[in-house]
Structures are given as structure tokens and as C-alpha cells.
Write a structure and sequence with these properties.
The complex is a heterodimer of chains A (345) and B (317).
Chain A: E1 10-21, E2 24-36, E3 41-45, H1 52-58, E4 68-76, E5 79-80, H2 86-92, E6 97-100, H3 104-107, H4 114-126, H5 130-143, H6 149-153, H7 162-174, E7 180-184, H8 192-209, E8 212-217, H9 220-226, E9 229-234, E10 237-243, H10 244-249, H11 254-261, H12 302-306, E11 312-315, E12 318-320, H13 323-327
Parallel strand pairs in A: 3-8, 3-9, 6-7, 7-8
Antiparallel strand pairs in A: 1-2, 1-4, 4-5, 9-10, 10-12, 11-12
Chain B: H1 2-29, H2 45-55, H3 61-73, H4 87-122, H5 127-141, H6 144-158, H7 179-212, H8 215-222, H9 227-256, H10 258-263, H11 269-278, H12 282-310
Helix pairs in contact in B: 1-12, 4-5, 4-7, 4-9, 4-11, 4-12, 5-7, 6-7, 7-9, 9-12, 11-12
Classes of the chains: A alpha/beta (345), B mainly alpha (317).
């Protein structure tokens, strides 16, 4: 379609999102550069307030326009998102880019059946007749492997279980055959066993449909299940980005290292301490001039609190934004200095 | 659905019994001599006692209540002390008049209230929202008998556009759907509609605002639905609440328009209650309150059933 054939599915450059709330300015996203190619899956991980969901929603311009300022560039298949007209935008949403949410019970209209909601989207984007759309909706429910899909078509969201609702939400999102799926913590609200099923479903559907996926989560294990690459966010910035295996094997940023250390890996041995990250996430209304993680970082140096670390390449696919990591980039990443004393700031 | 309707219907039986008991007690516990309107002030003690036993006022309250209830269930609400006519006839004529007025006022209130509410909720904090909020607060707080008098002064006394009071042209017997009769309804209906307009618009605004703040609205936008489609979803979510409030308002107007019906001399239940109270006409008072309560309860029943049809989540709870 585009004359730039290798154009990325999504590309952002210097993306900034600011909210004006009651005279306060929340700097939620502070310069995010990311690129996802067709059929690729990227996971955005981070704590709450790290800007991952805000970044995701900006990719569809879903933030309320009056109170939000978006700077920087967002390109969807080479087209500038911020320059799109209302009509173009609504053709894009749901038609080319679809989204699934954390809590499908809240994200589906409670007074419409699942079938009605899928049909509505199909008629809007594909101009189908009511009966054609219904047949396609049934297909969509089958494709997400919902048990007895015929009866689910006429069920209301509250009549389904959590896992089934998330499947229905995925069916709804994929019914118009989008090329990019944005998933906003789709497994967070689910039981552990259902989580795995949904992750496996997403992975399979992605392969079947050649779908590009941006997957927001705070669960690094979930990210590893579906994503090709992982971007770790902190304070509205990407602090580290690498292919999944590389990131798990050789994390560079102290935050990533701490995040990996703070999960109960394969069941915690009795008496073993669960590592935690001291302090609390940064106040997005008053970000420090330097690295946002510096106040909680065990390796913080003088430069960290005054100067923002630039995003630098370690190799062709591994990016990190950290003064400390770049200073020791030739050192062995395995020797994580656990017993090292925290430096004074 | 059928099970829900039956359950809901059965529930009205204890409610109606309770209402009957409460209105019986209120009427009998309130001060005042029930025979004041039929007996001359200088009536002899013998005559007085004869009348008391004729109306059954000398029997124990429990007996009086069950007698009344037994008759009421067969459609016999007793005889008005003041007019000597059956209470049921008096009440039905008045109720039909009130209903006509209440329906018109509620429809006005529903149209304007929903309009203001949806617009205000959709454009929250805009000048349109503020204007609509101001109007609805005015509607709820202005004393409506005062508003009625002001309307009479402007449109009847000054402009001569509409008649000031009454339920139809003099000499006309009964209601007809023509302009001669309709013009008598306009001022009282407008006066009565002010409160439902205010209440419905406040409620609808709140529901619309609440609906718009829900996550699924972002979900709808993320599916590429236009503003018109989003608005349709909001309306369907807000409709059950708007409808419930409208039903309640209709019920209030049926019995609660005593002041306005008095100001306009509209021959409805309000005026009837007013007369019954001032004449200490206990059978009439008791009967009209009960009929109004019956009306209110069946209205609620309709609203609940209709709501269950509109909102799939209700039936299961």
C-alpha cells in the first residue's frame, strides 16, 4: 500500500503525553521512540504509572482531547496519526488497529449482547448486512475457541466467566481483521490458569493472522510468553529495550535487573527473601531533571540525578538508557552487585 | 422474565395491605370530628350517636379496618359523608382528571428533562450544561403553586390567552378532546411539569456522566464507532434510570398535586383530597388515598417490568 514498503506497522518518535488535571500537569509519557514491524509482538512492561498504558492508548488517540496534549510523531503504516481526520481515525480504530482491555466486564457495554457488539463493529467497518455480520461474529467467537459459541452470541457480558469474557473481547477486537492488536494488560484480571490460556490463545492467533501486537503488562513472565521484544518503561520513558531472551539473560538497566529479581521465580524457596524495589514510583507531576529511577537506584551516581541518560545501543537490538550501565557496558552483566552498598546521593 | 413478573406481582399484595393499614391509621388517628359536615352544630346527642353507629365509628378500630378492607377488595370504598355518593365514583372521576393532567405534565417533563439531561451530561461543564443545571435547579426549587399563580397572572389575567381556572368550559359536562377543554389543561400541566423536568434532567445528567466515565466508552471509541453510535449506547444505558424516575414522578403528580389543582381548581384527586380533608370526610379521604396508593404501586410495577426488559442485568439479581 505505502510506497515505503518496509514501513513499520507502528512507529513513534519523541512521543510525549501530558494531562492537565485540576491545574496540575501530569507528564505521563516523556519521549518514547518505538517501532513495531508487521507481525511483530512487542511487550511494554513496567509498574503502574510507568506510562505503558498511556503510550498504548495514544497509539489510537483514545485520550480525551480537551485535557491531553500529545507531542511527537506517531505513524501507523507510515501515516501520521495526529494529522488524521475524524473519519480516517474511526476507520483506523477497530478496522486496522484494535484494542483489548484489562477488565472485559468494564470494557464491554453491559446492556448489549456480545453478538450485538461484534455485529455493530462489523457493520461499521465492513459494511455487512445484519445476517452476514452475525455469521462473521459467530466465526470470530469460534476462532477464539469459546465453548458453545452459538449461545454466547446472545449472552450479555455479565453472563460469562472472566476467561470467556476476555475471549469474547478478543473475538470482538479481531472480528474486523485488524493488522495491529493493542492489548492493555489483558491477563491481569484473570485467574492464573486462565491467564496462561489467554496468553497461549494470543500467541496462536498472532501466528495464524500475522498480527502485530503491542502487549502492555507488568508481568514479565506474561511478556516472555507472547512477545518477541520487550520494552521496559519507567517514569514515562523506555529505559531498556531488547529481544525477550536477551533481556531475560542479560538485563542492563538497574530497574530491569530489580524487576527480574523481584519476581518469585519458579516458586520461592522457603526462607528465601523476595527482592523488592525500595521507594515508590515517581510523581509524574514533578519528575526530577535526571533519571527518574535515580532515587530508588542502588547504583545511582551524582550525574544520575542531574542529567537524563540518553538511550544508547549496546548492540543492534539492545537499547538502554542508564549512565551506570553504559559506564560498565564492557563488564559482565551477570555480576550483579547484590551486596554492594547503596551510594549516597 | 415470566417468573420475575409473577414474583413482582405477588410482592404488591403485602405492599397494598400495608398501605391500607397505614392510611387507615393516619386517617383515624388525626384529630377532627368526622360528622362535622353532616350534623348541624346544635344536633341532639341521640342523633349524633345514631349517626356514629350508622357509619360504624363506634366499633373497635380492628373491626372497622377489616370491614373496610373486606368491602374495599370488592370495589366498595364506602359512601362519602359530605356528598352521600359512593367514594369509588368520586375518586374515579377525579383520578381520570388527574391522570390526564399528570400524564401530560410527565410527558412534558420527560421530553424536556431528558433533553436537558442528555445534553448537559454529554457536554459536561460547558455553558450548555450550566444553563441546563440552572434551569433544573429552578424547576426543583420554585414553589409550584407560586409559579401557577404567576402563570395565571401573565397568561390569563394580563394576556387573556388562556383560561385561569377550571376543568372545562362552564356548562360542559365531562371531558372532551377539543381545544375548548384542552386550553384549561395547558397552564396546570406546565406548572406541574416543572418539577419532573428538573428531577429527570438532574438524574439523567448524572447517569449520562457516570456512563460516559465508564471504561466501555473508551472501548466503543476504540472500535471506531462514531459519536452518534456512542450516544446510542449511552442512551440505552441511561434509559432504565430515566424511565424509573419518570414513573415515580407520574405517581407523585397523581396524588401530590394538591396545591396546583387547588390553585387551578382542577377537578382531580388533589382537589378531592383537599376537600375531603377540610370536610373531615373520612371514607372519602381513606378511599382516595388508597386508590392513589394502588395507582402508585401498579405504576412502580410497570416501571420495574419495563426496566427489566430494557436492562438485561436486573432479572438475575
Amino acid at each position: 500500500m505505502s510506497d515505503l514498503q518496509p514501513a513499520a506497522m507502528v512507529e513513534t518518535r519523541g512521543l510525549k503525553v501530558r494531562f492537565e488535571q485540576a491545574g496540575k500537569r501530569i507528564e505521563a509519557v516523556n519521549g518514547v521512540d518505538l517501532s513495531v514491524s508487521r507481525g511483530e509482538a512487542l511487550a511494554l512492561i513496567g509498574e503502574s504509572g510507568s506510562g505503558k498504558s498511556v503510550t498504548l492508548r495514544a497509539l489510537m488517540r483514545l485520550h480525551p482531547e480537551r485535557s491531553t496534549r500529545i507531542e511527537g510523531q506517531i505513524e501507523i503504516e507510515g501515516r501520521e496519526l495526529m494529522a488524521m481526520s475524524r473519519g480516517e481515525l474511526s476507520r483506523l480504530r477497530g478496522g486496522e488497529v484494535a484494542m483489548i482491555f484489562q477488565e472485559p466486564l468494564l470494557a464491554l457495554d453491559p446492556v448489549y449482547t456480545v453478538g450485538q457488539q461484534i455485529v455493530e463493529g462489523l457493520r461499521r467497518h465492513r459494511g455487512l448486512s445484519r445476517s452476514e455480520a452475525r455469521a462473521r461474529a459467530l466465526e470470530a467467537l469460534k476462532s477464539v475457541r469459546i465453548p458453545s459459541p452459538e449461545s454466547r452470541l446472545d449472552a450479555y457480558p455479565h453472563e460469562m466467566s472472566g476467561g470467556m469474557r476476555q475471549r469474547a473481547m478478543i473475538a470482538l477486537a479481531l472480528s474486523c481483521h485488524p493488522k495491529l492488536l493493542l492489548a492493555d494488560e489483558p491477563t491481569t484480571a484473570l485467574d492464573a490458569t486462565v491467564q496462561i490460556q489467554i496468553l497461549i490463545l494470543l500467541r496462536e492467533l498472532r501466528r495464524e493472522l500475522g498480527l502485530a501486537l503491542i502487549f502492555v503488562t507488568h508481568d514479565i513472565a506474561a511478556a516472555a510468553e507472547v512477545a518477541d521484544r520487550v520494552a521496559v518503561m519507567y517514569g514515562g520513558r523506555i529505559v531498556e529495550m531488547a529481544p525477550v531472551r536477551e533481556l531475560l539473560r542479560a538485563p542492563r538497566h538497574p530497574y530491569t535487573i530489580a524487576l527480574l529479581a523481584s519476581r518469585p521465580d519458579g516458586g520461592l524457596a522457603k526462607g528465601k527473601r523476595l527482592e523488592t524495589i525500595p521507594g515508590s514510583p515517581p510523581d509524574l507531576a514533578a519528575l526530577p531533571p535526571g533519571c527518574a529511577f535515580a532515587p530508588r537506584c542502588r547504583h545511582a551516581m551524582a550525574i544520575c540525578s542531574s542529567q537524563l541518560p540518553p538511550s544508547e545501543r549496546i548492540d543492534s537490538e539492545h537499547l538502554v538508557a542508564c549512565h551506570w550501565a553504559m559506564g560498565r557496558s564492557d563488564a559482565d552483566p551477570y555480576t550483579q552487585p547484590r551486596q554492594e552498598e547503596r551510594m549516597d546521593r | 422474565m415470566g417468573g420475575y413478573v409473577v414474583r413482582r406481582l405477588l410482592l404488591t399484595i403485602p405492599i397494598m395491605l400495608g398501605v391500607a393499614l397505614v392510611c387507615f391509621m393516619l386517617v383515624h388517628l388525626s384529630p377532627g370530628d368526622p360528622l362535622v359536615s353532616v350534623l348541624p352544630p346544635d344536633a341532639s346527642q341521640a342523633l349524633r350517636e345514631q349517626m356514629i353507629s350508622l357509619y360504624g365509628f363506634d366499633q373497635p378500630y380492628v373491626v372497622q379496618f377489616f370491614k373496610w378492607l373486606f368491602n374495599a377488595l370488592q370495589g366498595n370504598l364506602g359512601t362519602s359523608i359530605a356528598t352521600g355518593r359512593p367514594v369509588i365514583d368520586e375518586v374515579l372521576v377525579a383520578a381520570v382528571n388527574s391522570l390526564r393532567l399528570a400524564v401530560l405534565a410527565t410527558l412534558l417533563g420527560f421530553c424536556f428533562g431528558s433533553l436537558f439531561g442528555f445534553v448537559a451530561g454529554y457536554f459536561q461543564n460547558s455553558w450548555i450544561d450550566k444553563l441546563a443545571s440552572m434551569l433544573s435547579i429552578f424547576g426543583v426549587s420554585v414553589p409550584h403553586y407560586w409559579l401557577g399563580m404567576v402563570l395565571v397572572i401573565i397568561f390569563a389575567s394580563q394576556l387573556y390567552w388562556l383560561p385561569a381556572t377550571g376543568g372545562g368550559p362552564t356548562g360542559s359536562d365531562g371531558w372532551q378532546w377539543d381545544w375548548d377543554h384542552l386550553q384549561y389543561m395547558i397552564l396546570p400541566a406546565i406548572t406541574l411539569s416543572v418539577i419532573p423536568t428538573g428531577i429527570i434532567s438532574r438524574t439523567v445528567r448524572a447517569v449520562v456522566a457516570e456512563t460516559l466515565a465508564q471504561e466501555f466508552i473508551v472501548g466503543l471509541r476504540a472500535r471506531g464507532l462514531g459519536e452518534a453510535a456512542v450516544f446510542r449506547h449511552v442512551v440505552k444505558n441511561a434509559a432504565p434510570t430515566a424511565l424509573a424516575v419518570m414513573g415515580l414522578q407520574l405517581g407523585y403528580l397523581m396524588g401530590g398535586s394538591i396545591l396546583v389543582e387547588t390553585v387551578f381548581s382542577w377537578p382531580g384527586t388533589g382537589l378531592l383530597l383537599n376537600t375531603a380533608i377540610f370536610q373531615r370526610d373520612m371514607p372519602l379521604l381513606q378511599g382516595s388515598i388508597w386508590v392513589l396508593a394502588l395507582f402508585f404501586v401498579s405504576l412502580n410495577l410497570c416501571v420495574d417490568i419495563f426496566q427489566a426488559l430494557l436492562d438485561p442485568r436486573i432479572e438475575r439479581s
